[in-house]
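Much of what follows relies on a compact textual record of a protein's fold. Think of the row as the fold of the chain written in a discrete alphabet. An example makes this concrete, so a full record is given next.


***
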Amino acid sequence: MLKSYQFVSGKNELEEEVKWIKSVSESLQKELATLKDEASQLEGIHREKEELCGKLQFQCEESEKISIRELKQNKECDEVLEQYRCEIQELNFKHRKQRMKFENQLHQLIDQHKNLHSVFTLRRLPDEIESAENTKRQLLSAEQLKLAQLQGLSEELQKVKMGAAVVEAAAETQAK
């Protein structure tokens, strides 16, 4: 009986251990299921973060490209601006030189105008008129001489043309 009692007692202990093991197994199964759910959620979050990271990296690369392009455009604009500044300085320098030249010419004209009064006085007027008439006569005689030379050249040209026409006519008659 002792054996049977031990057997029953051992059986009960074993059954309790099996129950305890089953409950531990069930709790471990529940914990495993919970961990699997958490792992699945974490994997989803990880995928979302990787996608977000990829998007952010793409945006960063695009922003960097845009920044490089804008820096290049700014540099080109600065170069063009510097070129315009140089051109403006050159124009200002040219205008300054022209203004100074004009001012000098104006001062010379003012001085000449002051001197004109002394040059064209009534005492000198008959001499100036006579000088102008002499110049006019010389120009007229030079013009007549040039017209005569032109007339002579025109007559020579007509003679040459007639001579060429006669030579052509003779060549045509011989050719026939």
Q: What stands out?
A: The chain has a mean pLDDT of 89. The helical segments are 2-119, 125-175. The chain has two helices and no strands. The longest helix spans residues 2-119.
